């Protein structure tokens, strides 16, 4: 794709779309947001005015038909991702879609297949993977500084007196697992790969939405991982990998850190890596490089990782009994 200037379209005008669009401004002039779509013209116009966007549509489909964008960013709730992403890929429009890209692994496999069929780029916006601190952390881990990893401990839980309605609504893919649990799961997958065995317990509310989840993963190497997520507690929100020679730790809000801590026989060292903005422009920059290289997959946001973590999410939901409208067939339940 011989694009000098990459034209972005933003789908949905909620919290994360706002943060992502703000961060896009940190990229050089070759990234331009040309269109936004919302379910309401008022919201689209408000968003367009805030960010100086030329085209504003009251329907996602109209944005896809407009011919004004090369790539869309999807910031709707999770259940709405699949249909928008699929329609865009079929139209030859590249897609960067919020996490989790779909509710089930089956849907994610389908999107990867559609992307391949239409030779169109598709990526999950798992921004943790493109954060420079996280990348330095994993480079350090790969260097063998702590020896063979034996344990991962990671948690993603927060509490707000008034949670966004989306998080408690099964029809909007509510619950801590899909929203937050995907981060410790992806982190552990990056550190240790796919586990041989997964066990999970969860506490659900009367609507069947998970409020507290604990997971234990076992590996044939002998390594184990302990992961939690929740919506009822203020957790340390950290992630660590430990081995016989020491440990590496990502601090509070480990999915977009400013430093990490290496503890070895040499002592404890804080390692700072420069990061800018909120951190969403790193994934956007990687998408633009991949677009220019004519790729259907962004190397830092691999399809296999997206699908395998969704398979683990499927299995965890089966074990703790979280169901979303319409996913029984995909989950095989
Ligand atoms: N990467 C991150 O750091 C991060 C952080 C938070 C959330 N997320 C992910 O981003 C997605 C959106 O989260 P958010 O916190 O931005 O949610 P949000 O503030 O509720 O915004 C979601 C937007 O989606 C649109 N939408 C489309 N169909 C909808 C429906 N049926 N009900 C409600 N809204 C609908 C709405 O925009 P219009 O009215 O304009 O159509 C709404 O404003 C989720 O998949 C979540 O997992 C990622």
UniProtKB/TrEMBL annotation:
GO terms for molecular function: nucleotide binding; oxidoreductase activity. Keywords: Oxidoreductase. Residues 6-121 form the Gfo/Idh/MocA-like oxidoreductase N-terminal domain. Belongs to the Gfo/Idh/MocA family. The keyword Methyltransferase does not apply. It holds the Pfam family GFO_IDH_MocA. It comes from Kribbella turkmenica. InterPro entries: Gfo/Idh/MocA-like_OxRdtase_N (IPR000683), Gfo/Idh/MocA_domain (IPR050984), GFO_IDH_MocA-like_dom (IPR055170), NAD(P)-bd_dom_sf (IPR036291). This is Gfo/Idh/MocA family oxidoreductase.
